[in-house]
Design brief:
The chain contains seven helices and four strands; from the N terminus they run ααββαααβαβα. Helix content is 38%, strand content 6%. It has a domain at 2-108. A two-stranded antiparallel sheet has the order 1-2. Strands 3-4 form a two-stranded antiparallel sheet. It is mainly alpha-helical. It has helices at 11-20, 24-27, 35-47, 79-98, 102-105, 124-128, 155-168, and strands spanning 28-29, 32-33, 110-113, 132-135.
Length: 186
């Protein structure tokens, strides 16, 4: 994205931030930076941005070898379950940090998506099912009803719903005409 004129914050940027705070040693993981300190630094970076921005954050704790910081309580019986428990706690703190500025925070559409399905399942549907969450705190009043029948979707269909959701909350940066035909332009 830097070659397109965007300011980017890459792995070394976050590594340097943690090093300046003398937190790098306990933050280093086999696959990168543990989710907790990484998401804390991401939240601080996002909170300092002015105007419109886009962020793509990829974490690594929820991948094998399922390592978590020694300082985190691991109450569950398996390494995988403890890794996801740690990820959940890290995401919660991420939202709490950003929630310190409710005006800005309420204007953000968060899309949380996995990079793959379950590699540990023999069920083909579970192997290709990709968890996907849309979070807009301004829309707290929306309730979701469980489907009576199984439904399948693809990431291609998610684009349409993302655009519709963005249009419904007034995010015009993506353009409403991507969702439906604009009668003024034909």
């Amino acid at each position: 994205m830097a070659n397109q004129g965007y300011e980017t914050f890459e792995y070394n940027y976050f590594q340097d931030r943690l090093d300046r705070k003398n937190k790098l040693k306990e933050s280093n993981a086999i696959l990168g930076i543990f989710d907790g300190p990484f998401l804390d630094e991401c939240a601080d970076t996002l909170a300092s941005q002015n105007g419109f921005f886009t962020a793509h954050i990829m974490t690594s704790t929820s991948h094998s070898p399922w390592k978590i910081p020694q300082s985190f309580q691991a109450p569950l019986p398996s390494a995988i379950a403890n890794a996801f428990n740690y990820v959940d706690a890290s995401i919660k703190i991420f939202f709490e940090i950003l929630g310190a500025d409710p005006v800005k925070f309420n204007q953000i559409l968060f899309v949380i998506v996995a990079d793959h399905g379950s590699a540990y399942s023999n069920n083909v549907v579970e192997q290709i099912r990709i968890p996907l969450f849309f979070i807009v705190l301004r829309l707290k009043h929306i309730t979701f009803v469980k489907n009576q029948r199984p439904m399948s979707a693809s990431l291609i269909s998610c684009q349409r719903y993302l655009l519709l959701l963005a249009a419904s909350i007034g995010i015009a940066a993506w353009g409403k005409t991507s969702c439906k035909r604009d009668r003024t332009t034909g």
